[in-house]
TrEMBL record:
GO terms for biological process: cell wall organization; peptidoglycan metabolic process. Its main location: membrane. It is a lipid-anchor. It is found in: Cell membrane. Residues 204-250 have a biased composition (Low complexity). Belongs to the RlpA family. Lytic transglycosylase with a strong preference for naked glycan strands that lack stem peptides. This is Endolytic peptidoglycan transglycosylase RlpA. Residues 1-21 form the signal peptide. Keywords: Cell membrane, Cell wall biogenesis/degradation, Lipoprotein, Lyase, Membrane, Palmitate, Signal. PROSITE patterns: PROKAR_LIPOPROTEIN, SPOR. GO terms for molecular function: lytic endotransglycosylase activity; peptidoglycan binding.
């Protein structure tokens, strides 16, 4: 005779099996939907984040608000291995969104990235931390790299500049508020690097690129508005653009030939710069370049010019290993 509890056990087992099957089926459907759409954005709203100082391979980085940020250097891109994962501010990364990772800018921020090799310029939403290679200043999503024209090459010489008003409005949304009036902020104590003369600001042509096979198309361009407008961004948030083209619009600007350098330091005292340049000659052709920044004269110790990104990477790693963690690759 079967024990009464045996029947109960069988029923419970069947119910449990059906429940597990249902969960498995649900998980399969959810994962399939994420693969098809990149991510389920309904539950992915990123938070505003600056973050604490952190270290990567012996080099310290200090996140901060920097409203006059302009930098030239080398961009890379990331995609398949991170698709669907969380970004540093809690969104879901979609390689087909027009986004980027930056080491120090607040998250989210809006920046303009210009490919100094072909003149393509793109407004991009920064929502992640990176890149983690010393010789890179920004890590673009795969779609961003496609629009800027360097997906196949893997890297590009770029200029990155923050769009302050758009960034402040975007950050207000991330804090849970409305994109209200923009408030002035104090200027940073350290002078920002001057924008390269080879890249004038006014665009001369605007064009659209079709999405590659298997990739999601970027948002269609819309007429500029006098007030803030919202365009879809990664993670269910909105990129708030005050008047310029929305993320995903490619502009073409005039560019001139540029060189790659490894900058070891910058000094107001020329003698200090000269002494350092002498020590750097074991790494390559080193010299001192004078620059005017915000009414002050600086003397930059640079190695170069270098013809390829790979050679600049090798020089940079040697210089950092020799005890100069502040060295970086610049394009000028």
């Amino acid at each position: 005779m079967r024990h009464p509890r045996a029947g109960v056990g069988i029923v419970l087992a069947l119910v449990s099996a059906l429940g597990l099957a249902g969960c498995a089926e649900t998980e399969f459907l959810v994962n399939t939907a994420k693969q098809a759409k990149g991510a389920d954005r309904a539950g992915s709203v990123g938070a505003y984040k600056v973050g604490s100082p952190y270290q990567i391979s012996g080099v310290w980085y200090y996140p901060k608000e920097e409203w006059d940020y302009v930098e030239t250097g080398i961009a890379s891109w990331y995609g398949p291995g991170f698709h669907g994962r969380s970004t540093a501010n809690g969104e879901l990364f979609d390689e087909n969104d027009v986004t980027a990772a930056h080491r120090t800018l607040p998250l989210p921020s809006i920046v303009r990235v210009t490919n100094l090799g072909n003149g393509r310029s793109l407004v991009v939403r920064v929502n992640d931390r990176g890149p983690f290679a010393h010789g890179r200043i920004i890590d673009m999503s795969r779609r961003s790299a496609q629009l800027l024209g360097f997906e196949r090459q893997g890297t590009a010489k770029v200029k990155v500049e923050i769009l302050p008003e758009d960034s402040r409005r975007e950050q207000a949304v991330a804090r849970g508020g409305a994109p209200g009036p923009v408030l002035a902020s104090a200027s940073p104590t350290e002078p920002a690097a001057p924008a390269p003369q080879a890249v004038p600001s006014p665009p001369v042509q605007v064009s659209r690129l079709d999405a590659p096979s298997g990739a999601a198309a970027a948002p269609a361009p819309r007429p500029a508005a006098a007030t803030a407008s919202r365009s879809p961004g990664a993670g269910g948030t909105a990129a708030v653009v005050a008047g310029g083209p929305p993320p995903g619009t490619v502009e073409t600007v005039p560019v001139s030939p540029t060189d790659i350098w490894v900058q070891v330091g910058s000094f107001e005292n020329r003698d200090n710069a000269q002494r350092l340049s002498v020590r750097m000659r074991s790494f390559g052709p080193a010299g001192v370049q004078r620059a005017e920044v915000a009414g002050r004269t600086f003397h930059r110790v640079r190695i170069g010019p270098l013809t390829e990104v790979a050679s600049a990477d090798r020089v940079l790693e040697r210089v950092i290993a020799a005890g100069y963690p502040g060295a970086r690759i610049v394009v000028d």
